[in-house]
Amino acid sequence: MERVTIDGKRRYATPDGEKLPSVTTVLDATKSEESKQALNNWRKRVGTVQAQAITTEAAGRGTRMHKYIEDYIKNGVLSDPGSNPYSIQAHKMAQQIVSNGLIKCNEYWGTEVPLYFPKVYAGTTDLCGVHDGSDAIMDHKQSNKFKKREWIDDYFVQLTAYANAHNEVHGTKIRKGVIFMCTADVVYQEFIIEGVEFDKYSDMWFNRLEQYYSQFV
What we know:
With 217 residues, this protein is α+β, with helices and mostly antiparallel strands. The protein contains six helices and eight strands, in the order E-E-E-H-H-H-H-E-E-E-H-E-E-H. Helix content is 48%, strand content 29%.
Protein backbone atom coordinates (compact mmCIF):
# COMPACT_ATOMS: atom_id res chain seq x y z
CA MET A 1 0.00 0.00 0.00
CA GLU A 2 1.08 3.57 -0.67
CA ARG A 3 0.80 6.35 1.89
CA VAL A 4 -0.74 9.56 0.57
CA THR A 5 -1.75 12.85 2.20
CA ILE A 6 -5.18 14.37 1.52
CA ASP A 7 -6.16 17.67 3.19
CA GLY A 8 -3.25 17.24 5.57
CA LYS A 9 -4.46 13.81 6.73
CA ARG A 10 -2.66 10.53 6.17
CA ARG A 11 -4.41 8.11 3.85
CA TYR A 12 -3.46 4.71 2.48
CA ALA A 13 -4.05 3.85 -1.17
CA THR A 14 -5.16 0.22 -0.94
CA PRO A 15 -5.04 -2.55 -3.58
CA ASP A 16 -8.78 -2.17 -4.26
CA GLY A 17 -8.34 1.50 -5.22
CA GLU A 18 -9.66 3.07 -2.02
CA LYS A 19 -7.88 5.89 -0.16
CA LEU A 20 -8.57 5.04 3.46
CA PRO A 21 -7.87 6.90 6.72
CA SER A 22 -5.04 5.54 8.83
CA VAL A 23 -5.62 4.06 12.26
CA THR A 24 -3.62 6.90 13.83
CA THR A 25 -5.69 9.50 11.96
CA VAL A 26 -8.90 7.99 13.36
CA LEU A 27 -7.52 7.82 16.90
CA ASP A 28 -6.15 11.37 16.82
CA ALA A 29 -9.45 12.76 15.51
CA THR A 30 -11.53 10.98 18.16
CA LYS A 31 -9.45 11.63 21.27
CA SER A 32 -11.46 12.48 24.34
CA GLU A 33 -11.63 16.08 25.51
CA GLU A 34 -9.87 14.97 28.69
CA SER A 35 -6.94 13.62 26.68
CA LYS A 36 -6.74 16.76 24.56
CA GLN A 37 -6.82 18.96 27.66
CA ALA A 38 -4.10 16.93 29.36
CA LEU A 39 -1.84 17.40 26.33
CA ASN A 40 -2.57 21.13 26.20
CA ASN A 41 -1.85 21.46 29.92
CA TRP A 42 1.50 19.72 29.46
CA ARG A 43 2.44 22.04 26.60
CA LYS A 44 1.58 25.08 28.68
CA ARG A 45 3.49 23.73 31.68
CA VAL A 46 6.75 23.06 29.85
CA GLY A 47 6.40 25.77 27.22
CA THR A 48 5.70 25.47 23.49
CA VAL A 49 9.35 25.43 22.41
CA GLN A 50 10.40 22.86 25.01
CA ALA A 51 7.36 20.69 24.27
CA GLN A 52 8.27 20.63 20.58
CA ALA A 53 11.89 19.79 21.42
CA ILE A 54 10.82 16.89 23.64
CA THR A 55 8.41 15.60 21.00
CA THR A 56 11.02 15.82 18.23
CA GLU A 57 13.67 14.07 20.31
CA ALA A 58 11.25 11.28 21.27
CA ALA A 59 10.23 10.79 17.64
CA GLY A 60 13.86 10.53 16.53
CA ARG A 61 14.66 8.09 19.31
CA GLY A 62 11.65 5.97 18.40
CA THR A 63 12.59 5.91 14.73
CA ARG A 64 16.13 4.75 15.54
CA MET A 65 14.89 2.12 17.98
CA HIS A 66 12.40 0.76 15.46
CA LYS A 67 15.09 0.50 12.81
CA TYR A 68 17.37 -1.54 15.08
CA ILE A 69 14.51 -3.88 15.98
CA GLU A 70 13.45 -4.25 12.36
CA ASP A 71 17.04 -5.12 11.39
CA TYR A 72 17.17 -7.69 14.19
CA ILE A 73 13.93 -9.35 13.07
CA LYS A 74 15.16 -9.55 9.48
CA ASN A 75 18.80 -10.46 10.11
CA GLY A 76 18.98 -11.93 13.61
CA VAL A 77 21.45 -9.32 14.89
CA LEU A 78 21.31 -5.76 16.14
CA SER A 79 23.34 -3.48 13.89
CA ASP A 80 26.21 -1.42 15.31
CA PRO A 81 25.04 1.99 16.62
CA GLY A 82 28.39 3.67 16.07
CA SER A 83 29.45 6.58 18.29
CA ASN A 84 26.37 8.83 18.02
CA PRO A 85 24.99 9.16 21.59
CA TYR A 86 21.37 9.21 20.38
CA SER A 87 21.95 6.06 18.36
CA ILE A 88 23.63 4.38 21.33
CA GLN A 89 20.65 5.18 23.55
CA ALA A 90 18.17 3.86 20.97
CA HIS A 91 20.32 0.74 20.54
CA LYS A 92 20.20 0.03 24.29
CA MET A 93 16.43 0.40 24.23
CA ALA A 94 16.14 -1.95 21.26
CA GLN A 95 18.33 -4.47 23.07
CA GLN A 96 15.93 -4.46 26.01
CA ILE A 97 12.98 -5.19 23.73
CA VAL A 98 14.90 -7.95 21.94
CA SER A 99 16.15 -9.57 25.16
CA ASN A 100 12.91 -9.32 27.15
CA GLY A 101 10.17 -9.24 24.51
CA LEU A 102 11.11 -10.72 21.17
CA ILE A 103 12.66 -13.73 22.90
CA LYS A 104 9.05 -14.85 23.53
CA CYS A 105 8.16 -14.76 19.83
CA ASN A 106 7.87 -18.19 18.21
CA GLU A 107 7.40 -16.91 14.65
CA TYR A 108 7.69 -13.67 12.73
CA TRP A 109 5.19 -13.28 9.89
CA GLY A 110 6.25 -9.79 8.93
CA THR A 111 7.63 -6.49 10.20
CA GLU A 112 6.31 -3.03 9.29
CA VAL A 113 3.27 -4.77 7.84
CA PRO A 114 0.73 -2.69 5.87
CA LEU A 115 -2.82 -3.74 6.72
CA TYR A 116 -6.29 -2.59 5.73
CA PHE A 117 -9.92 -3.36 6.43
CA PRO A 118 -11.52 -3.09 2.98
CA LYS A 119 -13.32 0.22 2.37
CA VAL A 120 -12.92 1.31 6.01
CA TYR A 121 -9.36 1.95 7.33
CA ALA A 122 -5.70 1.04 6.97
CA GLY A 123 -2.38 1.24 8.80
CA THR A 124 0.99 -0.31 9.43
CA THR A 125 1.79 -2.52 12.39
CA ASP A 126 5.30 -3.13 13.71
CA LEU A 127 5.09 -6.90 13.87
CA CYS A 128 2.76 -9.82 13.12
CA GLY A 129 3.56 -13.31 14.32
CA VAL A 130 3.27 -15.80 17.15
CA HIS A 131 3.91 -14.63 20.70
CA ASP A 132 4.20 -17.23 23.44
CA GLY A 133 2.24 -19.73 21.35
CA SER A 134 -0.58 -17.39 20.23
CA ASP A 135 -1.10 -15.45 17.01
CA ALA A 136 -0.59 -11.78 17.81
CA ILE A 137 -0.19 -8.22 16.64
CA MET A 138 2.83 -6.61 18.30
CA ASP A 139 4.05 -3.02 18.56
CA HIS A 140 7.35 -1.58 19.79
CA LYS A 141 7.00 1.65 21.75
CA GLN A 142 9.49 4.08 23.21
CA SER A 143 8.46 6.24 26.14
CA ASN A 144 9.91 9.27 27.89
CA LYS A 145 8.86 7.80 31.22
CA PHE A 146 7.45 4.68 32.88
CA LYS A 147 3.83 4.07 31.83
CA LYS A 148 0.91 2.80 33.89
CA ARG A 149 -1.44 0.42 32.12
CA GLU A 150 -4.43 2.71 32.54
CA TRP A 151 -2.63 5.47 30.62
CA ILE A 152 -2.31 3.60 27.32
CA ASP A 153 -5.82 2.63 26.24
CA ASP A 154 -5.20 4.05 22.77
CA TYR A 155 -2.22 1.73 22.30
CA PHE A 156 -4.48 -1.24 23.02
CA VAL A 157 -7.21 0.08 20.73
CA GLN A 158 -4.58 0.46 17.98
CA LEU A 159 -3.54 -3.18 18.35
CA THR A 160 -7.12 -4.40 17.93
CA ALA A 161 -7.56 -2.22 14.84
CA TYR A 162 -4.59 -3.93 13.19
CA ALA A 163 -5.72 -7.37 14.34
CA ASN A 164 -9.21 -6.90 12.91
CA ALA A 165 -7.76 -5.75 9.59
CA HIS A 166 -5.42 -8.76 9.46
CA ASN A 167 -8.27 -11.12 10.30
CA GLU A 168 -10.55 -9.61 7.66
CA VAL A 169 -8.06 -9.80 4.78
CA HIS A 170 -6.02 -12.88 5.70
CA GLY A 171 -8.64 -15.04 7.39
CA THR A 172 -6.76 -15.21 10.69
CA LYS A 173 -8.35 -15.21 14.15
CA ILE A 174 -5.96 -12.98 16.07
CA ARG A 175 -7.24 -12.01 19.51
CA LYS A 176 -3.99 -11.02 21.19
CA GLY A 177 -2.00 -7.80 21.20
CA VAL A 178 1.40 -7.17 22.74
CA ILE A 179 3.23 -3.91 23.41
CA PHE A 180 6.99 -4.06 23.95
CA MET A 181 7.99 -0.76 25.52
CA CYS A 182 11.26 0.75 26.70
CA THR A 183 11.72 4.08 28.44
CA ALA A 184 14.40 6.62 27.60
CA ASP A 185 16.29 5.54 30.72
CA VAL A 186 16.20 1.95 29.43
CA VAL A 187 13.48 0.41 31.61
CA TYR A 188 11.54 -2.37 29.86
CA GLN A 189 7.76 -2.76 30.09
CA GLU A 190 5.41 -5.25 28.47
CA PHE A 191 1.63 -5.10 28.11
CA ILE A 192 -0.63 -7.87 26.77
CA ILE A 193 -4.32 -7.87 25.89
CA GLU A 194 -6.19 -11.03 24.94
CA GLY A 195 -9.51 -12.78 25.39
CA VAL A 196 -12.29 -10.68 26.89
CA GLU A 197 -9.99 -7.67 27.30
CA PHE A 198 -9.08 -7.83 23.61
CA ASP A 199 -12.77 -7.87 22.74
CA LYS A 200 -13.36 -4.81 24.95
CA TYR A 201 -10.72 -2.77 23.13
CA SER A 202 -11.91 -4.05 19.78
CA ASP A 203 -15.38 -2.71 20.57
CA MET A 204 -13.80 0.60 21.57
CA TRP A 205 -12.03 0.73 18.21
CA PHE A 206 -15.19 0.22 16.18
CA ASN A 207 -16.98 2.84 18.28
CA ARG A 208 -14.18 5.32 17.59
CA LEU A 209 -14.33 4.41 13.90
CA GLU A 210 -18.07 5.04 13.81
CA GLN A 211 -17.51 8.38 15.54
CA TYR A 212 -14.85 9.33 12.99
CA TYR A 213 -17.04 8.56 9.99
CA SER A 214 -20.06 10.33 11.46
CA GLN A 215 -18.16 13.50 12.40
CA PHE A 216 -15.24 13.89 10.00
CA VAL A 217 -16.17 12.23 6.69
